[in-house]
Amino acid sequence: MSIDTLKELLPDYAKDIKLNLSSLANEEILTDQQKWGTFLASAMAGRNATVIKAVEAEASQHLSTEALTAAKAAASIMAMNNVYYRFVHLAANKEYQTLPAKLRMNVIGAPGIEKADFELYSLAVSAINGCGMCIDAHEAQLLKEGLSKDAIQASIRIGATIQAVSTVLDTESALDGTTALAAAAE
């Protein structure tokens, strides 16, 4: 599987998503490690098995073992952090903001790759998961690390497009299942 396989799986109504997938696979603002790590972390956040497998196959051609692991770790830790910090941010009782999280997050401090690249993966996943508090924290860290706003935006464009691919494929799968169930009922 590959990015080309994903493009072939997208129906005609998702032509814009297909075109965005092509252009982002050729994105030159980000390094290969930044780009493909963001692709993989975003695919994991989208939770579609077909997308994860295709993106991992493509990413493994461009990433070291350490970067592959870091992308997976970013998706994993953000799955937890985005829920926790979204709660802290949205809860009417602001006392939660003063309490320690008491959750292990060691991988953020020692991701095994450049800190900025891990932050970029984490930012894309946080955008997919809708955690504004995490988005702000990762963006601030990336700016501090010297990444441009264009590079930051590119990671979000990757996350948005990969999420759209996952949504379309999940929708098509559900519709196929509904059609099969309806046919079986007749």
Verbal overview:
- This protein is mostly helical and 186 residues long.
- It has a single domain (3-185), classed as AhpD-like (Up-down Bundle).
- Helix content is 75%, strand content 0%.
- The chain contains nine helices and no strands.
- Helix 3 (32-46) runs antiparallel to helix 4, helix 5 packs across helix 7 and helix 7 packs across helix 9 (149-185).
CATH topology: AhpD-like
Amino-to-carboxy terminus distance = 36 Å
Sheet/helix structural class: mainly alpha
Name the overall outline. Answer: globular
Please provide the count of β strands. 0
CATH class: Mainly Alpha
Largest sheet: none
Summarize model confidence as the mean pLDDT.
93
Q: What is the assigned CATH homologous superfamily?
A: AhpD-like
Number of helices: 9
H and E string = HHHHHHHHH
Poorly predicted sequence stretches spanning 5 or more consecutive residues: none
- Overall tally of structural domains: 1
Indicate the proportion of strand residues. under 5%
Key features?
AhpD-like; mainly alpha; 186 residues
Can you give me a brief rundown of this structure?
This protein is 75% helix and 0% strand.
Would you spell out the secondary-structure blueprint of this structure?
Elements lengths: L2 H7 L5 H11 L6 H15 L2 H11 L5 H26 L15 H4 L5 H15 L2 H13 L4 H37 L1
